[in-house]
Amino acid sequence: MNNLRQIIAVTALGLRSIHTRFKSALVIVASLTCVLGVMISLLALVEGLALAYADAGDPNNVMVLSKKTGGLQEGLFIERGSALPRAWVNLIENAPGVRKASDGLPSADAEIYTFIHLTKKSNHRTGPTGLRGVGPEGIAIRPELKIISGRMFHPGKREIIVGAMAQQKFVGLDPGDQVALPDGRWSVVGVFLTGNFLDGDLVADSETLMVGLKQTTYNSVIARLVSPESFEAFERSLTGNPALSVMVERQTDYWKHLFDSLPKAGFYVIFWTVSFFVLMGAMIGTLHAMYAVVDSRTNEIAILRAIGFGGFAVAVSVVLEAMLLASSGAVIGTAIAWLLVDGYAYNGADGVFRVTVDLHLLLVGIGSALAIAFIGALSPAIKASRVTVVEALRAY
After folding, report:
1. Residue 72 above 70 pLDDT?
2. CB 200, CB 345: distance < 8 Å
3. Which of 126-140, 148-162, 346-360 is modeled with the greatest confidence?
4. Helix residue ranges, H only, 190-242
5. Measured between alpha carbons, how far is 28 from 5 in angstroms, rounded to an integer?
6. Per-residue pLDDT tens for 29-67?
7. DSSP state of 99
8. For 245, phi and psi rounded to 5 degrees?
9. Secondary structure element (H or E) that encloses residue 129, with its range
10. DSSP at 308
């Protein structure tokens, strides 16, 4: 009998008798369920943040920011620090490559972006979220923005629409509620959904908001190009204009650079430190459980070795059993994490985003579990493979 057939036969025999080793099997499944549940929950934060930034831009849109004042932060031009005078906006909106709307006007919008602090529903502490001022074209170049409750704000009025995640996270954001801003209280008139980072923000009319915030400059201009290939001509016309001091980026590149600039190092230090200790615990648990499995299968090994099965097949069956149990624990742990945290509106330093548990994290979990099981079962498997026929029969 060749090695492959022996491995299949021994593994099948071991799995059929797994009910006799219920406690050892439960140790492996339970430990991996707990470990992977914690790991996946932590990784889901970064996964959700990355997806929020990745989906925030449109390849047909460009962002124009100023190079003056506070626009530059650690090598990155950011929207909150940018300041575009009104005199620049007309030049930017009429630059070559900008698409024309049905009314003949440029598909471009001068916008305001700042942070405000609202009270969280979960702990009644305050947390930051974005407040964006947009004009009519700002809505038009965001076709993904859909009002799901209430109505759109009216230009010129102190009205706000709120993202679905912001409404989920903070108190006082239902239609009919009011939000306190520096110039008084603004009425919430609608709730919108985009499927990207904007769902954690509040949106209002830019001109009205500019007056309310006592702001005299815009933070950005977002323009929709005729095609992605129009970017170079658009950029040259603006950066080559001595009357302007601006930088131009595709909207998708802006959000990618912004995500890359986030201080994620601290999170990863915490993640890997926590993961190291819990993984070590799971590995030790697997090691002891598989030694118990080998001891409980002594009689079975005796019979197998006596009728001609090799030590290699026995060793592989031990490893495969551990990996099967570990992957079961990984699936259960990921499923629990998915039920508990997937879709949760998390409020970080850059606003609100949705925690995401997806197929990628499931594969990460299963891969980690298989690695733990392999390492933890290797020593017991070697022990099982070195049992001689005489020793096995003596034990039997």
Report:
1. no
2. yes
3. 148-162
4. 206-212, 231-239
5. 26
6. 888 888 888 888 888 888 888 888 777 778 889 999 998
7. P
8. -135, 80
9. strand 126-134
10. T
Task: Please report which helix (H) or strand (E) contains residue 14, including its range.
Answer: helix 3-16
Which residues are paired to 178 by β-bridges?
A: 187
Report whether pLDDT(394) > 80: no
Coil/strand/helix, residue 17 = coil
Whose structure tokens read 């985003």?
353
* Separation CA 287–CA 301 (nearest Å): 19
Q: Are strands 351-354 and 345-348 parallel, antiparallel or unpaired?
A: antiparallel
Return the HEC string of 168-202.
HHECCCCCCCEEEECCEEEEEEEEEECCCHHHHCE
- The helix-helix angle for 311-341 and 3-16 (nearest 10°) equals 50
- DSSP, residue by residue, 349-392: TTEEEE----HHHHHHHHHHHHHHHHHHHHHHHHHHHT--HHHH
Q: Where are the domains of the chain?
A: 3-53+264-395, 61-226
pTM of this structure: 0.75
Q: Token digits for 363?
A: 């594969």
C-alpha span between 372 and 25 (Å, rounded): 15
